[in-house]
Amino acid sequence: MSAQASSAAIVLASSEENSEDFKLEAASAIASGAVLGVHEDNRFKSESKKALLKSVDIIGLGSGPQVDNKLKYASDVCSGVIFGRELVNAPANVLTPGVLAEEASKVASLYSDVITAKILDAKQCEELKMGSYLGVAAASSNPPHFIHLCYTPPNGDVKTKLAIVGKGLTFDSGGYNIKTGPGCLIELMKFDMGGSAAVFGAAKAIGQIKPPGVEVHFIVAACENMISGTGMRPGDIVTASNGKTIEVNNTDAEGRLTLADALVYACNQGVQKVVDLATLTGACIVALGPSIAGIFTPSDELAKEVVAASKVSGEKFWRMPLEESYWENMRSGVADMTNSGGRQGGSILAALFLKQFVDEKVQWLHIDMAGPVWNDKKRAATGFGVSTLVEWVRSNSS
């Protein structure tokens, strides 16, 4: 707002020609644009400028309960997007795995009528045989926290069960395969929990919207990928909770190791559909650039659902091939698989890896959001994924 105004009005001229649906969508888009446009994260600045804009009047787009409901929905989604942005913006010395678990628990206590929280510590994860996730967490002095929020609709009547799984690396040094050289982005690796931020941002919005007929499990295996004497070495073999063994030929392909156990856990909740989000590969940024996320799924039906949700949210996704023949690159001589298969088709190989940990009876879709998690111009998080997830859950609700 270069005009420094505290209030603004937006008028739609000649509104008679426009359909009621158009007016609703336009009012919602204007409201979302205003709220997200003036949001600035000043928590870590010594002088914080408050946004001057206090109110926006939307004129010529109708009034009444339909418009009010649409604006409330937009406001709820925006609060989730802002929460997601602030989680990603918080540096790794502020947002540890433990603090991420606290933030998620706060969402559950705010909406305790519909959301419950369960936080597992390292010992409990060990009992569930999450060797893949714990291998990544082993080097850090900040202990891992496995976070599980569950949304149940107010009347308890559930027709569809969904899971949303987010990658939660609060910092990623690369481990012994340390990130080095220009373009390695090590200084930005606080954003490696962008998937989990989208998950908890969506949980916050859904706690307010309370969609009927749908149960949603929000799952994050949070930890740091650090370097120490207790850390995982290149060449180590870890065993995931579904019994599959993994030769870790690259400790910087760690997100997929944490997601492996999170996906097994999600499928064990008896869900029909799972969507996972992760800042997983630099290869996806090379392929699709900074503002488009890649989606990978064997299910055409689920791809259609998520793409339809993204058309409403305005976030950009592109479906990528899940080329089974590439799996040859992930074969290990000593374990069931390696965790990395070289540079070519890197984001496809990562998706094929995740597929090994999803129950065949469950529809699954993977979102690689390494590009759109961050806005380089603003040097800040985008909150990407939240609005599409909320829309997807809504489309599955009765």
Task: Please tell me about this protein's structure.
One of its GO terms (biological process) is proteolysis. InterPro entries: Leucine_aapep/pepB, Macro_dom-like, Peptidase_M17_C. One of its GO terms (cellular component) is cytoplasm. This protein is of the alpha/beta class and 398 residues long. It has 2 domains: 7-63, no CATH class; 92-396, Zn peptidases (Aminopeptidase, 3-Layer(aba) Sandwich), CATH 3.40.630. It is built from 11 helices and 15 strands. α1 (20-38) links the parallel β1 (7-11) and β2 (55-59). α3 (97-110) runs parallel beside α6 (194-209). It is globular, with a radius of gyration of 21 Å.
Keywords for this entry:
398 residues, alpha/beta, three-stranded mixed β-sheet, 15 strands, 21% strand, Leucine_aapep/pepB, Macro_dom-like, metal-binding
